[in-house]
Amino acid sequence: MSDFTRDAESCRAEKVALRGQLLALRRSKTPDTLADAATRLQQALESHVRHQSPTVIATYVPIGAEPGGPDLLEALRRAAPTASVLLPVLMPDGDLDWAPYEGRSSLRPGPRGLLEPAGPRLGTAAVSEAELVVVPALAVDRRGIRMGRGGGSYDRALARVPVTTFTVALLHDGELLAEVPAEPHDRRVHAAITPGEGLSERLDWTK
């Protein structure tokens, strides 16, 4: 076995272990804790959105204990009432198509327990038109490296986003780490928002 293969396998094993720890911590959070975290995250995100004034926002629908809470989309609408909001649609190959958000009543159950928009599909490249991209994550480190659930969907989506587009991950406290295990395909984000720290802007991509 080559050193490269051994290092890659070690990295993947570290990711699996870290994901398990973080998911267990999320499952342990009480409804009150989740609601308070969602309020703080939405307030910080709304403040940034009002400052940036994007016309197209790509985001996601939080489910379960995912950061952002069930009212995340309405918070974005309050902050940017004229902006177009795009939501992901999980494709059979794990890639992400995108469709416009047309209100909570327009969401439909999707694969893996997700909620997806029922509107017209705009194609995988639609995310490249967003001026702000809000992504889910299990952890982000101070270098901007994002760790998701392991499917690679958002790594592919972020690869289509211009490097100048502001990308931000929503996290719970304790999920903005000094370092997370990273592989070559892992994409970085510009910033993270946590309930306790707010917006940690412009993470260091030079490291």
UniProtKB/TrEMBL annotation:
It holds the Pfam family 5-FTHF_cyc-lig. Keywords: ATP-binding, Ligase, Magnesium, Metal-binding, Nucleotide-binding. One of its GO terms (biological process) is folic acid-containing compound biosynthetic process. Its EC number is 6.3.3.2. It comes from the Bacteria. ATP binds at residues 15-19, 146-154. It catalyses: (6S)-5-formyl-5,6,7,8-tetrahydrofolate + ATP = (6R)-5,10-methenyltetrahydrofolate + ADP + phosphate. Gene3D superfamilies: NagB/RpiA/CoA transferase-like (3.40.50.10420). Substrate binds at residues 61, 66. Its cofactor is Mg(2+). GO terms for molecular function: 5-formyltetrahydrofolate cyclo-ligase activity; ATP binding; metal ion binding. It is an enzyme of class 6 (ligase). PANTHER family: 5-FORMYLTETRAHYDROFOLATE CYCLO-LIGASE, ATPASE INHIBITOR/5-FORMYLTETRAHYDROFOLATE CYCLO-LIGASE. Belongs to the 5-formyltetrahydrofolate cyclo-ligase family. This is 5-formyltetrahydrofolate cyclo-ligase. The lineage of its organism: Bacteria, Bacillati, Actinomycetota, Actinomycetes, Micromonosporales.
